[in-house]
Amino acid sequence: MDSNSLNEKFAIPDFVSIADVAPNYPIVQISNSHASASIAVHGAQVLSFQPNGEEDLLWVSKTAVYAEGKSVRGGIPICWPWFGTHPDTAMPSHGFARNCFWQLTSVKQDHSGSTEVMLCLEDDIASRSLWPHAFELQLRVSVGKALSLELTMVNRSEEVVDLTAALHSYFDVGDIAGTAVRGLDGVEYIDALQSNRRLTQAGDVRFDAELDRIYQQTAGDEFIDDALRGRSIRLQKQGSDSTVVWNPWIAKSSRMDDFEDGGYRRMVCVETGNMGEDVVRLQADAAHTLGVTISAEKA
Ligand code: BG6
């Protein structure tokens, strides 16, 4: 992956440039009149989104690894074509789309001052050894006052395929103790830490221990209220009826080499997805789009 040739083809003077953050690991860097952002070509992973005058909405671990085959700990990894652990434990967790280089296909500046970046992934020998289907994935990222992601998955095979997926967003918060996830009151969830028991959310989701839940039937907006920062992050979903809320807390985060010490206090994952019962069934040549628009508001 050569950042010089990507830069020659896709850079837009004053707005977009492409540079390596590690050898052969190009990042698309965007700075426009609304915000700045960065997107790794590896995994089509958005790593930062900072509207003007705001702190970054996304969290990335200071000890994250930037190398082919492993997703960066933070930002928005794309989990696809399966979410979570595979029944065959030799298979990668959260699928393979986050672990390989995508193709950067277009970069545009629009009249409103927003920047649009498109990335694409298609099946190849490596993907077919893990998942034997032809597919096309396209990620459209729009960077303006808000950050929008649209992941379109097309079944290019001749058989019906079932998929689960997530835009696994890691959000930056001032302090997890003063953070609440709003918009899930009364919603049923599957609790991964209680043998997948089904429970019902009462009030906002708050954090004082490890938490790992799949909320079902969640098409409405969700908010991350950050008391320390005095801001709320709003998530507007598209093509998603499920949401994962995750914080690894102390013991689990300390078992992950790429999770900075104490980082669990500064992050929360609220993942827009198709997971749990929200499985996407695609007929031959059919497509599904999973999307989220993320913006900051004063709390
Ligand atoms: C979350 C899961 O989506 O991702 C957690 O609900 C998991 O159970 C977490 O630990 C991180 O997964 P990974 O594979 O990136 O370490």
Rounded to the nearest angstrom, the distance between the terminal CA atoms is: 42 Å
Domain count: the total is: 1
Order of helices and strands: HEEEEEEEHEEEEEEEEEEEEEHEEE
The chain-level structural class is: mainly beta
Instruction: Give the count of helical stretches.
Output: 3
Judging by the overall fold, what is the CATH architecture? Distorted Sandwich
Mean pLDDT, nearest integer?
A: 97
Largest sheet: 9 strands, antiparallel
What's the β-strand tally?
23
* Shape category: globular
User: What portion of residues belong to β-strands?
Assistant: 35-45%
Would you mind describing this structure in some detail?
The chain has 3 helices and 23 strands. The radius of gyration is 18 Å and the shape is globular. It has a single domain, classed as Beta-galactosidase, Chain A, domain 5 (Distorted Sandwich), CATH 2.70.98. The longest helix is centred in the N-terminal third of the chain and has 8 residues. It has 299 residues and is mainly beta. The relative contact order is 0.16. The strands form 4 sheets. It has a 9-stranded antiparallel sheet, with no helix packed on it. The structure holds 6-O-phosphono-beta-D-glucopyranose.
